[in-house]
Amino acid sequence: MGPRDQELAKAKQLLADAGYPNGFTLEKSIHTRNVTRDQDLGVWVAQQLGQIGIKAQTKAMESAALDQVMTNKDFQIRASYSTMRLDDPDIGFIDYRCDERTNLIGLCDKDYDAKYLAQTGTIDPVKRKELALDMQRILAKTNAYVPVFWVAFNVAQWDYVRGWNPVATNKWCYCMIVFDTAWMAK
């Protein structure tokens, strides 16, 4: 988040303070799906970790095998792309609840769960946003999820296309754009 050389020096110092002045080698490979973009992401993550002395290998797997590894929680790091609907915190935040089967990292924070349940039952968008931001802060403090980049998609629209608002309809998950409310004015 800051100047790269300072961030790298801080990371190395944190490792040294934790008893790893020369870094260490991950016991398990960084798991990815065996598709090019996921494999490339895994290699990039391993290279980034290498800059601070953490040695890592990558392992590309078929989706079913990777799903089994994730379900069994038999991993240290997973490099993957993630897509979520930005207009509904229920979808993006459910994976971090204590008893959720998709909670792959085993995080259990009762305050987080309480905020999740509060936001899902709140219809006031301002209050719901406050609760969602609180949940993000909790996740950031626990390092439960570390986004390494963000991709923004831009959409062009002719002026005669009506009834389609990509923010309001936001059915973008995995790029499944739905035009069920759109119509042409000419």
**For the CA atoms, what is the radius of gyration?**
20 Å
Run of helices and strands: HEEHEEHHHHEHE
Number of strands: 6
Overall number of structural domains: 3
Categorize the overall geometry.
globular
Distance between the termini: 48 Å
In DSSP terms, counting alpha (H) and pi (I) runs of 4 or more, how many helices? 7
Contiguous runs where pLDDT drops below 50 for at least 5 residues: 168-176
Largest sheet: 2 strands, parallel
Report the mean per-residue pLDDT as an integer.
Answer: 85
Helix content: 40-55%
- Strand arrangement, major sheet: 1-3
SSE-based structural type: mainly alpha
Q: What proportion of the residues form beta strands (DSSP E)? A: 5-15%
Question: Which keywords apply here?
Answer:
mainly alpha, 3 domains, two-stranded parallel sheet, 41% helix
Describe the structure.
The protein is mostly helical and 186 residues long. It folds into three domains: 81 residues, no CATH class; 69 residues, no CATH class; 31 residues, no CATH class. The strands form three sheets. A two-stranded parallel ribbon has the order 1-3. Strands 2-4 form a two-stranded parallel sheet. Strands 5-6 form a two-stranded antiparallel sheet. Helix 5 packs antiparallel against helix 6. The longest helix is centred in the last third of the chain and has 18 residues. The radius of gyration is 20 Å and the shape is globular.
In short:
With 186 residues, this protein is mainly α. Helix content is 41%, strand content 9%.
